[in-house]
Amino acid sequence: MALELKVPEVGESITEVMIGIWKKQEGDAVATDESVVEIESDKATVELPAPGGGTISKILKGSGERATVGEVIGYMELASAGAAPAPTAAPAAAPPTPAAPPPTAASAVRVMPAAARVLGEAGVAAAAAVATGPGGRITKADFDTSRGREIFAEVLASGRSVEEVVASMGIAAVSDDELIALCKELIAANPKIVADVQGGKQQAAAGLIGQAKKKNPNVNPGKIRQTCIELIRAM
User: Fold this and answer.
1) Which of 4, 31, 56, 146 gives a 20 to 30 Å CA spacing to 180?
2) ∠ at Cα 105 (100, 107), nearest 5°?
3) pTM, whole model, 2 decimals?
4) What are the structural domains, with CATH classification, of the chain?
5) How many whole angstroms separate alpha carbon 205 and alpha carbon 207?
6) pLDDT, tens digit, 9 for 90 and up, residues 105-136
């Protein structure tokens, strides 16, 4: 039996939330009342528990995406009556594979589960994405953009490195000084957003990202948001 996973009420007057970390992925077994996903609001972060034992069958909203209260963000398949969710069976022994190369700084990048799955399906290394998630983790949003898809498509088609493709496309890195200067400009032009952030509504800073991209399409959304929040807090 399929069951909807909906965004719960998280506080009076709050209608929109941000999807946090999915603690269970598609195909994972889950027990009744076990935490499935974190839901972030302006005021607090809450956990959505599983309404019953079963298996996560579909995730509709990934980490970092916005959703409204009551919106369906995923589905789970309930286990048969009287049966507990079965643990995922161990895969059959695979034939020997060549030894993996020694780990590098790039391969040590932490990747959120949803991002890892999509990166793997696309055949793209985790190092190809720019991390903006909690604790420097890569999330699906870091590469699921029109510019990101363009870069990765060229990497796969040409066999060149990400760095070579980025350089050939004329995408310049944005320095910390440039980010700070841009944030100061945006802060001065958006007193309402500044007031909201100072009042504890950090999600309001997302309104600065689109403006920043118009002024400099090379800025990283996560970095511009965090830099602006830090500057506002220091005011």
Assistant:
1) 146
2) 40
3) 0.37
4) 2-78 (2.40.50.100), 113-168 (no CATH), 176-233 (1.10.10)
5) 5
6) 333 445 555 555 555 555 555 555 555 555 55
